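protien #1 (seq + structre)
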Amino acid sequence: MTDETDTIAAVATPLGEGGISIVRIAGPRSLEIADMIFQGRRVPSKMPAGTFAHGFARSIRDGSIIDEVVLLVYRAPHSYTRDDVVEMQGHGGAACTRRLLEEVLKAGARVARPGEFTLRAFLNGRIDLTQAEAVADLVKAQSEKAAAIAVEQIRGHLGQAANNLYERLACIAADIEAMLDFDEGELPLSVAKGVAESLHLIYQEVTQLAETWNIGRALRDGVRITIAGRPNAGKSTLMNRLLGRDRSIVTELPGTTRDTIEENIIVAGIQARLVDTAGLRTTDCKIEREGIRRAWEQIKCADIVLYVIDSSQGLHQEDVNSLNVIGSDRVLVVLSKIDIGRNVSESDLSKFRCFPCCLITGAGLQELRNHLANVLSLKASVETQFVVSQRHKVLLDEACSFIKKATDLLKTGEEQALVLCACDLRGALEKIGQITGRDVSKDVLDQIFSRFCVGK
């Protein structure tokens, strides 16, 4: 855990050439440090909150000018971290930005750790843990929909849902604790039955919230699309066509692709990870066998498999065997080389959705693209204002387990079961509380904020 009494600093913009660069300072000495470095008509420590000044950043040692800057002042508690915060905006060059940060550190600040500004915002109560996580998700978002769902989470919708569940569950837990004060035989069975019904409703809501993880994974991590098939079927050509550029090597020699090749594409506003794989066949070549093993690994973890069949050669038994292993629920069959011949008909593969294509001219490819867009849109369809992450899902699943055990105990009608029921509800409350950070360990915080960039 960090020391909140420290004053921290970091470059808040990407390193390299750019229009501007920002050095951010937060903590009790931020205004004092700014006074030591800033040279202008206004003194930073005397500036009101939410104001800015033009001037120059200078060396503490000899007063030499480092850069022309605009200085912004945010006073506690009305800042990102709820500390006093100063930002110096200079020219976006690596050398002057590095020198400016060095002067800030010489003046008494220390380098901020990854995510430390957002960690302070959480520890100081400005945001909850779901909002803090959403900041990292927004920075890393590769698609419009991923960015949109991160913004909704920053606005607090997921945290509000978790808090609502927590508060309702806490009320039921308090009722259970109150029931323990009744003498044996005094508690009406109807009371326990009513509490069990209320618990079941919460159980359903927690389960539904946990199920949004599949959508969240698709939006945050991208949908994984693996291109598979026998050698020389046109897999690499399909990869290049979908990317719109030559990424995979294409030759007439079977077995050209020996390892997986991965690239990101955006389809219907959703990030997808496109993977080209080695051709599937029986071979004595040790290197090619390793490539085939890796291809099957990619097939197993794929959300969608584009299985390419050379329609000019007819349906090979190896294709039939591979498709039977993969199954039809996530496979789209691409019948390639239709310009040479059509010796495989869609009726031969009636269990699969087929797309006859000429990958050289692009004929038939738009229908495949349109279908992919529809499939990805369904996989990442967002009907709620929030989706959960892997961390949230684990906690929700554990909470569900506690709630179910508590409900089953209540249904027994045995008064001695109330003690065990109360313990289970405390366990459920702990898990749901950890979602927003009501009760979270240092190790969990370290793991969450290690995902952040320095300066955020």
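ok now protien #2
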Amino acid sequence: MKTATTIYTCTKCDAQSPKWTGQCLECGAWGTVAIGATSTSGSGSGSSVRLSGQTSRHPGVPPAKPEHFDDIRSEDSVRLPIGIDELDRVFGGGIVPGSVTLVGGEPGIGKSTICLQVAVKISKNKKVIYASGEESAAQVKSRAGRIGGGTNEMLFLGETEVETIIATLNHERPALAVIDSVQMLRSSEIPAEAGAVSTIRGATAKLVEFAKRTSVPLILVGHVTKDGNVAGPKTLEHLVDAVLSFEGERTGQLRLLRVLKNRFGSTDETGIFEMTGEGLKEITNPSAYMLEERNGSTPGDVVSCVLEGTRPVLVDIQALVQPTSFGYPTRRATGFDQSRLEMLIAVLAARGGLNLGQHDVFINVVGGLKIKDPSVDLAVLLALASAHSNQSLGDLVVWGEVGLGGEIRPVPATDRRLSEAARLGIKTAITPLPRNKTSVRLKGDIEIRDVHTITEALTAVIKTKA
């Protein structure tokens, strides 16, 4: 005996429930729950699901003819160069025809600015369409004028209905189209408001299908949630070809463009920019930029080297250690993981003999950079020891991952890190001990002091007071 079960679906968040409610139990929206599907189950040979009155069984549909891989001709796509070195690095040499790229980031971080710069750069000799549902034509033109450069071949489209946008792109056939933003898109075929999960997913799927059919590359702008995911959440990342994350502190000038996904290139590249009144400017020498205002004679100041993509970047780690005025000491970290800082303080006490249990500890990464590379562990420990002993460590660079046993583990790309430090004139490097190597080696003009425990590292740089 077969029974039919009605499934109700929220048109805003796609949550499902077996009964109708006035308010969605997941997203809290009112009046968005409607009949979404009917499930038929029972003792028959199978079950079927009907969506909007259609059955999932299609006996009259003819099969498609698959192609043999040996008969498929492989062609290398000619990329569209942007003309901005940092962006071309991130895109893998340029924009692939027919690709769909999603640029995500927090509101106000500069997503629209960097996409507009790409459009302005390419529009000097190729047709570009900039579609925006968040700004008027006058506002976009004003920002384009502030960025600088001619926009002879740039067209503005103030439209949010995806069917109209696709029809316009199909008629104009531009070299590039920018959609700002996907959260503002709506569709006449989807009974949901703009910003709903179903609307975002359906509109993006239509745009992807158009891009693959016409080879017109698209750049989509998307906002992120408080969790750092593209608002949806993460419902678009599997649809597009590339996902770029635009990061930085809105109060600072440094901006990073990281590659989270790229079907046509490497995911190990990062573009580094500076936000100015004339838009985003690429930083060709990030190490010099990070150390520009550094005072090497200050206690608690240590230089480390991290990898941003495949590029080594020297960063300035600052520490401040003071006796606590309260019963529970304060631990604060800016640009560094708070939990990892607490772990390193515990390792420093248990394995290095330096107990900071009655001290307030502050760590700051200069320049607004957010570091996730564990190679800065040793630099943080030595900065804490330097601040506690009030001793300056001088002009040296430090890196190495610290384990719970107090051991210092080697990190990748040691040669590239050493070359970057030597290029900026640093004379001494403290690094983990590689296998089958001597304890002190010379590489160019750098003296390398290899250490394999935090005790050895502390002994090498901190002078014991008599």
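The first helix runs from residue 85 to 91.
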